[in-house]
DNA sequence: CAGAAGGTGAAATGAATGTTTCGTCTTGAT
DNA sequence: ATCAAGACGAAACATTCATTTCACCTTCTG
């Protein structure tokens, strides 16, 4: 496992917040030389710690203003059924996150949809339509209070 | 509201997946000229559709491998109490997402923590310690099945 | 049909960028 | 205390980049 010193931590922290920083700009932020920053960024990338650079888009600005959380119970836990179901989830682009969870339910899904009608359509035809889904329970977000990608270092 | 044509959509889609694309590289991906891409990206930024560029870091690679979902019920719904509570949530960096939700609970939190002991500490001292929290219910992710930031365009 | 308005691609610009090299310094092991 | 190994910052490099200009083309309006 990769050991991060303070400088690495400052670099990871800075790049999580602004991935467009050049080596020179980053160097200024974290108080080091551009060359050093460049080498460390390369190393952190190869260690798999620094992942891809992406553009953040707020769902609402693309008309996907409704966040839904949907819990799923399966009819059976057999591996093949789960795999097949997961492939369906993977293929549905409004489903942003899927977790297999502890407790009374098997999966927790997070979707960003256009509205209720849109969600109803997806729930019925993409999710409940699957043969190994037994039950679903939906919760709707009234407001997005906090939302960040920044993992504390 | 901003109307996106096909080219805009291809640009937003490409940049959501790779925010490090230069105008020239982007142009190749979406089949347009670098100049055109540059102008459109600028416009999309000013319209607030293209948000910040960030580096993705997998929580597990920083030792934060446990995803927890925590539902909260408040003692009262008065605005001052909610505001105060939300400030606390904002200040806790292991809390990545907070939604105010419909149904039997008031909030849904998503945290990325180091492990159970870490979570217990945060739940007790940061969350339940707050005077207007009545009850909490925690669900633990067994596995991250899907996780994307890409909002379908 | 005429003409304005706006979007387009190609080319040109100077500035900024990634990347390497090198001599020095730090550090940890013996 | 000595040594080797590795990390460091400064400088130099060619390359790539963002940004502007310009002439052309499309597409609506009257």
Q: What is the number of helices of chain A? A: 5
User: Whole-number average pLDDT of chain A?
Assistant: 97
SSE topology string of chain A = HHHEEHEEHE
Which structural class matches the secondary elements of chain A?
alpha+beta
Low-confidence stretches of chain A: none
Strand content of chain A: 25-35%
Largest beta-sheet characterization of chain A: 4 strands, antiparallel
Number of individual domains of chain A = 2
Global geometry of chain A: elongated
Quaternary form: homodimer
CATH architecture of the largest domain in chain A: 2-Layer Sandwich
Helix content of chain A: 25-40%
Radius of gyration of chain A: 20 Å
**Terminal Cα span of chain A:** 15 Å
* Count of distinct strands of chain A: 5
Walk across the major sheet of chain A and give the strand order: 3-4-2-5
CATH superfamily of the largest domain in chain A: Lrp/AsnC effector binding domain/regulation of amino acid metabolism (RAM) domain
The CATH class of the largest domain in chain A, by name, is: Alpha Beta
Q: Which pair of chains has the greatest number of interface residues, and how are they split between the two chains?
A: A-B, 59 and 59 residues
CATH level-3 fold name of the largest domain in chain A: Alpha-Beta Plaits
